[in-house]
What we know:
Layout: H1 7-30, H2 49-78, H3 83-108, H4 115-142, H5 150-181, H6 185-188, H7 201-223, H8 226-229
Helix pairs in contact: 1-2, 1-7, 2-3, 3-4, 4-5, 4-7, 5-7
Amino acid sequence: MRSALCWLPILLAIVTVICFSVSYVFAVVRGDINAFWPYISDTGGQEPESCLFGQLLNFSAFLAMATMYVRFKLVQAFNNYDRSLRILNKVALFMGALSSLGVSLVANFQDTYVVSVHLTGAFMAFGIGVVYCFLHTVITRKMYPMYNNRSIWILRFFISLLGLVSLILTFVFASIASAQAGSIAQVTDFSKKWNATEPGFDEHIVSTMSEWMIGVAFLSFFLTYVQDFKRITIRILPELLVSHLDETPIVFNSGPTERTGLLA
């Protein structure tokens, strides 16, 4: 019997692809962006596509956090002996939470209105997200060969490396495009449509393409969890402490319940 949790990373990928695709189509049809490789955030920078972009991306942030929590519990369930693995697992969950918060900030603070908060969220989503991927690559390596095979940690390593290289290219070529354009305002003015004849256009396109590759890397990394999640289930069982809701609860120590700490 396969656990339904395997659909969680798949649903995350589907919702995120729908979010980016629909907001991109809306923005292009309305003439708000150039059709050729805009930044991801550009697709949701103007109304009404910003409403759809924000709503779906917030849902993606929630699904990402849920996926990372299930992965945390899976690693925790297998690990009974390695203290360093327990620490890495908790640190990775914390980094994942920060990355999900960054995605939510990107969704709620559009680049056309609150640039500083939006860029902070982008750094948290992408930068800390890459750290999360590498942490779980290390965790997967430490779980080999006792709990997983060699190919999965190698796959996760190359996906993480793709995310890191894409992250570096995004920021490096954005800086180069800024220098070519002669002003940082050229890059940070997200309402601007870049023209192919302008200085820095080619570098700008490399930067935007690299940002899309970060998104591909993240979704690919989460999809590597699908097979793992087929083999785990998480249950929250209610336990009545009274026979009438006006009675005072009497708690007996009968083992883990829904009151047990989520990170315990």
